[in-house]
Specification:
Number of helices: 16
Number of domains: 2
Strand content: 5-15%
Helix content: 25-40%
Largest sheet: 2 strands, parallel
Length: about 400
């Protein structure tokens, strides 16, 4: 991005006057999309009061924020700001711009309160921080929201490491697009260790979850179970969560998470997997690959329609069908730290073209690596052309 020469302070002052002069919108009940995009569940108690991120963010310029994977919603920007950006009148190396973007609710998944003097008073996060990105239609990292798409550019470890109360190297091993939800929990007052050493997993998509039933890698519970766990213990929301399987109970009143779980679930289940871009796969080869998927490659024995998973196929559909790590060649430690403790569910495949790398730990860089993995583990003896055809079919889903 270019550096711009017009002083930013004069522009911000005019913009703030224009924004604060607008009539306030009438209040309305939050629906699922609003909750997903904008509700912090009161997690400012973690991000502001404990991590003190409101002290750090005012020193971070937009270029740095974009470099660690934060995204900007272009549709939240006033027309005058968009015009100024296009005209080269905004200095994106100026940290004051970051604070102004927070005032506009334009930083995807990050909510901040900014006073009239331009000081950031508090900050919190929403579901969209990890489970939304943008289409880059304005510039890299700036565009229209894509809810449900995993933000595989987001470097949560580096961001949290900026906190003055977290050791610099505590989460530096995570890397972009990964997070360890079993490393620690926040109980409303303190950060409580859960497991060591840390073992991050890929941020998963929140789209294409229709008919899946158990939406996490280890099938710990329904989508609302996981939203509750993450909302309270990971995001730091002001609410209650309890699961004796992992020895964790958090009680906070009022509960600002549980009453919103149903609407949040309904919105997430409405997010369809994105169709593959036109021309992104060979249709003829994909047809051959589909025959292999349902035949020699044995994929459909576990990846069952309609959701391309067998997690609900056990004797009791209320109990997830899991596969032991040794059965599928997966890393075993993360599963042992989960609530189910025994293995992994079969991953649903809709929209799989969109979110490399693959497997819970990101150990397969691309779809060819996935095919090679199972070809070796299951001794499928697929030829090189058959592997290519199978990849083309997976790209078509």
């Amino acid at each position: 991005m270019r550096r711009f020469v017009v002083p930013f302070g004069t522009y911000v002052l005019a913009l703030v006057i224009a924004i604060t002069a607008r009539p306030a919108s009438s209040a309305k009940p939050l629906d699922g999309m609003d909750i997903f995009r904008f509700d912090t569940f009161g997690d400012e108690q973690l991000w502001t009061e404990v991590l003190r991120m409101h002290e750090v963010i005012p020193s971070i310029n937009p270029q740095t924020a974009l470099a660690v994977g934060l995204k900007v919603d272009v549709e939240a920007l006033p027309a005058e700001l968009i015009a100024a950006l296009q005209a080269g009148q905004v200095d994106l190396t100026n940290p004051a711009v970051t604070v102004e973007l927070l005032r506009l609710n334009a930083v995807v998944g990050v909510m901040g309160t900014v006073d009239n003097a331009g000081q950031l008073e508090n900050v919190g996060i929403t579901c969209a921080l990890c489970h939304s990105t943008v289409d880059n239609s304005f510039a890299p990292g700036i565009g229209k929201r894509l809810d449900g798409w995993p933000n595989r550019d987001l470097d949560v470890g580096t961001i949290v490491g900026l906190s003055p109360v977290i050791p610099d190297d505590a989460f530096s091993s995570w890397g972009p697009g990964k997070y360890d939800p079993r490393d620690h929990a926040f109980d409303g007052t303190s950060i409580v260790p859960l497991n060591s050493p840390t073992l991050p997993v890929l941020i998963p998509p929140a789209y294409g979850l229709q008919d899946v039933g158990f939406e996490t890698y280890t099938a710990d519970g329904s989508i609302s179970y996981w939203n509750s766990y993450v909302g309270v213990s990971q995001m730091g929301g002001h609410g209650s969560f309890s699961d004796p399987r992992i020895g964790l109970t958090i009680e906070q009143k009022p509960d600002r998470v549980t009453p919103k779980l149903a609407a949040l679930r309904d919105y997430q289940l409405s997010l369809l997997a994105p169709s593959p871009p036109e021309g992104s796969f060979d249709a003829v080869a994909a047809s051959r690959g589909e025959l292999l998927f349902n035949g020699k490659a044995q994929c459909s024995s576990c990846h069952k329609l309609p959701a391309y998973t067998d997690v609900l196929s056990g004797p009791n559909p209320t109990i997830p069908l899991l596969h032991a790590p040794a059965e599928t060649g997966m890393e075993p430690v993360y599963a042992s730290r989960s609530a189910t403790k025994t293995g992994y569910r079969t991953a649903p495949l809709r929209g799989i073209w969109q979110h490399p790398p693959y497997f819970h730990d990101g150990s397969a860089a691309d779809l060819r690596a996935v095919v090679d993995h199972y070809n070796a583990i299951l001794k499928l003896q697929l030829s090189t052309p058959q592997k290519r055809d199978l990849v083309e079919f997976l790209k078509s889903l």
